[in-house]
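Input record (one chain):
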Amino acid sequence: RGQGAQAVENLQSLLDLPAMQRAGWSAGALTLIGFFHLSDHNYAKAQETLQKALAELGEGDSKISRYQVLLLAAQSALLNGKPARSIELLGRILTDDRLPKEAYALAMELYAEALRLERSFSKVPELLGKALELYKLADDRSGIARVHLRLAALALDEGKRDQASEELSIASSLAEGLDDGFTLNMVARLALSFSG
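The corresponding structure, as predicted from the sequence alone:
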């Protein structure tokens, strides 16, 4: 936490430089600040900062890829309870066939979650299935675990508790031993749904 706060302070001081001196990298600096706010669970501040990053990005060259900023902005929109905004942001990158496979998998995972939160369930299993295939190809245990968690959440929403329990069990097994606080936290939070 202390290092993150110091990094934000250092990046902010760089952003205070005249525009000519920060051309090309200000969007990257803002994206990093937004990432630190996300990590610190300050979702409102993350969304505000990532919106500034998107504005700075414009159409010009940048040291950071547009899809990275859009993915983080979509994640912050989800965490701020704005799935429609997340869908809008993800729609801007899911049509890009040059997107790296890992980014495409994450974008589909987030898109599926946003649709689920909007209670538009019909496309969610297909999107999560495609994300799962890509995560398996990359041997990404965290990604695979998250997909099973999102399938469990979908099953709960649809009143299918047995299926949800099965998906949660798979996710818990996959998440065991992972050095991934985000996924482990998701497992714990969803498990609470079964204690009620």
